[in-house]
Structure prediction request, 76 residues.
Amino acid sequence: YMDVSPKQVVSAATACIPFLENDDSNRALMGANMQRQAVPLLVPESPIVGTGMEHVSAKDSGAAVICKHEGIVERV
Prediction:
């Protein structure tokens, strides 16, 4: 049995923890619980380190507006 992506083994919140495969299991569990309880920032900043799974979380939240075509968004 082989997963399509190694990130499918863990939840979306856990997949957003950087360097998860190198973390101790207790720290990874604590990080996953913290991710679940996180609240959005009022003034968001781009992260210094990312996992590549942030776009999945943003898309699945339903709060992000995604354009079907490339170009400039003139109205929403």
User: Anything to note?
Assistant: The chain has three helices and no strands. The chain has one domain: 6-61.
